[in-house]
Amino acid sequence: MSQIIIADADGAIVEYDPGFLDPGPRSALLAELAQVQDRFDRDRVRMYGKTLDSPRLVCAFGDDGLHYRYAGVDRTTHPWPPHLRAARDRIADLCGHPFNYALVNLYRDGDDYIGWHADKVSDLAPGSAIASLSLGAARPFQLRHKQQDIEHEVLLASGSLLVMRGTTQQFYKHALPRRRGVTESRFNVTFRHVRAS
C-alpha cells in the first residue's frame, strides 16, 4: 500500500510503498545485481571545486546510446539484465511513463552514504518521475526542504519503492546518511527517463 510522504503546494510529491516487490522477485533481483557486482566502481565527482571519490559504488544500466551526466560524471550504461528490466517495466506502468536508465548505487555497509543533494533533471523527460527501488539493508532516507524548516525521514525497507514526482528536486534535497553498525549491503536502483541526446 503506497503512502504519501510529501504532497505540498509547490507541486512536490513523494510516495512510498514499503512492500512493492514480493520476496521472490526481490531475491531474484538481488542475486542478479550481486552477480554483476564486479561492474561497480567509485564515481570521481566534482563538488565544491574538488574532485572526490564517491562514498559508495555505482553502476548504470540503460538503453543504448543514453547519457546521464551528474556532478561531472558521465556513466557508460550496461544492457538491461532480465530481472532489472522486469522491475523497470512494472514501475513504468505504475508511474505512467517509460524508464530507459537505471543508476544503481551499492552501499556496502553503514559507512557508505550519500550526502544532501537534489537530482539533476535537465537531462530527463519533462514531467517524468524518479523512482527509487531499495534492496538489502534497511536504511533511513531523509528529505529536507531547501528554503523551509521541513524535514522527513523514511526507513527504506528491502523491496520498497520511493517515487519522487513534480517539483521535488526543485524544492527538496535528500540524503542517505551513514549508519554505524549496519553490516549488510544495500542496492538502490534509481530509474529515470533520460532524453536522448
TrEMBL record:
Pfam families: 2OG-FeII_Oxy_2. Residues 98-195 form the Fe2OG dioxygenase domain. GO terms for molecular function: dioxygenase activity. Keywords: Dioxygenase, Oxidoreductase. It comes from the Bacteria. The keyword Transferase does not apply. PANTHER family: ALPHA-KETOGLUTARATE-DEPENDENT DIOXYGENASE ALKB HOMOLOG 3 (PTHR31212). This is Alpha-ketoglutarate-dependent dioxygenase AlkB. It comes from Nannocystis bainbridge.
